[in-house]
């Protein structure tokens, strides 16, 4: 046993190929700290105790393990030892945790009701499901406006869930269809009825605060909360701008944002800029799979250069731009593309347009439409690059962070949230939105340079750690405590008689 450090420190690469099983999920292997201490490149399977460790630990799945070893051997350099805790430091941490738990047990949990009009697995809804398990001291109850797959996801996340169904016409109205002059009496009546029903339910639940999770729910949810006299937080995940919403709706939302919510959370500086004169807190969306996705770039021989594009199929998401760029970058060869996602909100015509475009370019054998994929992490493990091609500025861009956490080179449009997440040519690449030629040029560059992919991928993995669920949950929890403290009744000092 005493000789193990000597062997480790002189190795070019260390491998720990544990079987992934329920048993290995229970481990906290001491060898993980030994590997960190000697600082040699270490390739490990995604088991407990290794997944959340920094460089030089690289996690690789079954299909990429051999290739990850090859890449590590090619790039093996000087040792990069990390500081690991002593037993005395661990004992101090343990004592601190016991103290924290004791103090927390003496505190009252905040009761928070979350409201969302949608129950589909869309971006904002997935972000909520990722946030809830990481929140500390919160009793979460979610009220949805429809039935859907989000119900189960939220229950797994630890929330209680109920559905107060919205009027069908109100629920199905898309943001680009809203016109104040065309709302009509029926929708107004339905909105009043839905708001009144929600207010009645909030009065029964008596939460400490209300958190609305979508733009539509912000309007009727905040109105219901104010009727009952409850503080309400708007979580705005959409750009309140004319390129995203009708101009009349933009004016109304900006006005209401000043008077209805007790606090406003936005998902990026880009989103905050569309709410002038509103005091808002920027909190990014959490990446619940940050540890599991840390697989390292799939650069090794035997796997073709494969590009993934993940997101709902919609015109503004730019799948058509990506297809044209792929054709120009790789008119021949073995490069492949995966377009992951399905249509939502009645946008099925766009899916047919994309299929026809692929056939016209003759790329149907190299570009695959996967439809909706539940386990994106497993898919990204097979990719070398991720493209995000929105033609309208993206409010945040969760998939950009997912790709970075997977150790992929991410190429994204230089606008909105992705432009804040990526530092160009450091942990990803940016190009002018909608410019297929510029995107094609970057694709060619990345495909031809494995060293570049390795460097950018490792930088991206390091950057993605700041979007971990614990980090984001702490920021949201601070907003909760601030709003709750401000809304508690003030006790006036007793006047002398």
Provide tags for this entry.
497 residues; alpha/beta; seven-stranded parallel sheet; six-stranded parallel sheet; 42% helix; globular
Describe this structure as you would to a colleague.
With 497 residues, the chain is of the alpha/beta class. The protein starts with a helix and ends in a 10-residue tail after the last helix. The protein has helices spanning 4-9, 30-38, 65-74, 87-105, 123-131, 150-156, 168-172, 184-205, 215-228, 247-259, 269-273, 319-329, 348-361, 376-380, 398-405, 416-421, 436-447, 450-464, 469-487; strands spanning 14-16, 42-44, 57-59, 110-116, 138-144, 160-163, 209-212, 232-236, 263-266, 280-282, 306-310, 336-340, 367-371, 385-388, 409-413, 429-431. It has a 7-stranded parallel beta sheet, sandwiched between helices. α8 (184-205) packs across α9 (215-228) and α12 (319-329) crosses α17 (436-447). Residues 290-300 have low confidence and may be disordered.
Could you give the topology of this structure?
Elements: H1 4-9, E1 14-16, H2 30-38, E2 42-44, E3 57-59, H3 65-74, H4 87-105, E4 110-116, H5 123-131, E5 138-144, H6 150-156, E6 160-163, H7 168-172, H8 184-205, E7 209-212, H9 215-228, E8 232-236, H10 247-259, E9 263-266, H11 269-273, E10 280-282, E11 306-310, H12 319-329, E12 336-340, H13 348-361, E13 367-371, H14 376-380, E14 385-388, H15 398-405, E15 409-413, H16 416-421, E16 429-431, H17 436-447, H18 450-464, H19 469-487
Parallel strand pairs: 1-2, 2-3, 4-5, 4-7, 5-6, 7-8, 8-9, 9-10, 11-12, 11-14, 12-13, 14-15, 15-16
């Amino acid at each position: 046993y005493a000789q193990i450090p000597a062997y480790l420190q002189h190795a070019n690469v260390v491998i720990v190929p544990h079987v992934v099983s329920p048993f290995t999920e229970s481990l906290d292997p001491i060898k993980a700290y030994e590997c960190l201490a000697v600082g040699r490149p270490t390739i490990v399977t995604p088991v407990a105790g290794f997944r959340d460790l920094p460089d030089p630990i690289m996690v690789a799945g079954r299909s990429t393990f051999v290739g990850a070893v090859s890449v590590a051997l090619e790039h093996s350099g000087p040792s990069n030892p990390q500081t690991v805790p002593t037993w005395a430091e661990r004992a101090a941490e343990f004592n601190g945790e016991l103290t924290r738990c004791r103090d927390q047990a003496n505190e009252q949990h905040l009761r928070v009701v979350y409201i969302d009009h949608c129950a589909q697995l869309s971006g904002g809804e997935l972000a909520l499901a990722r946030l809830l398990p990481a929140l500390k001291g919160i009793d979460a109850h979610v009220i949805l406006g429809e039935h859907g797959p989000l119900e189960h996801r939220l229950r797994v996340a630890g929330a209680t869930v109920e559905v107060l169904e919205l009027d069908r016409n109100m629920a199905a109205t898309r943001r680009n269809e809203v016109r104040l002059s065309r709302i009509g009496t029926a929708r107004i009546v339905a909105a009043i009825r839905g708001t009144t029903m929600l207010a009645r339910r909030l009065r029964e639940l008596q939460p400490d605060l209300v958190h609305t999770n979508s733009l539509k729910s912000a309007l009727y949810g905040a109105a219901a909360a104010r009727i009952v006299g409850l503080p309400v937080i708007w979580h705005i995940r959409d750009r309140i701008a004319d390129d995203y919403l009708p101009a009349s709706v933009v004016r109304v939302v900006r006005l209401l944002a000043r008077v209805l919510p007790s606090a406003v959370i936005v998902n990026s500086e880009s989103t905050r800029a569309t709410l002038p004169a509103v005091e808002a807190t920027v909190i990014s969306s959490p990446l619940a799979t940050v540890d599991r996705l840390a697989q390292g770039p799939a650069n090794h021989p035997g796997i073709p250069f494969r590009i993934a594009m993940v997101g709902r199929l919609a015109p503004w998401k730019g799948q058509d731009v990506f297809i044209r760029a792929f054709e120009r970058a790789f008119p021949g060869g073995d490069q492949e593309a995966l377009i992951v996602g399905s249509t939502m909100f009645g946008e099925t015509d766009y899916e047919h347009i994309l299929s026809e475009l692929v056939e016209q370019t003759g790329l149907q054998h190299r570009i695959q439409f996967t439809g909706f994929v539940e386990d994106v992490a497993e898919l990204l493990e097979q990719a070398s690059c991720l493209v995000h091609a929105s033609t309208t500025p993206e409010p945040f861009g969760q998939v950009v962070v997912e790709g970075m956490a997977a150790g992929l080179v991410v190429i994204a449009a230089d606008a909105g949230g992705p432009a804040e997440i990526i530092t160009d040519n450091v942990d990803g690449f940016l190009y002018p939105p909608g410019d297929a030629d510029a995107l094609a040029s970057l694709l060619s560059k990345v495909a031809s340079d494995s060293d570049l992919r390795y460097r950018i991928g490792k930088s991206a993995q390091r950057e993605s750690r700041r979007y971990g669920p614990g980090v984001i949950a702490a920021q949201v929890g601070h907003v909760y405590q601030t709003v709750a403290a401000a809304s508690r009744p003030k006790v006036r000092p007793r006047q002398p008689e």
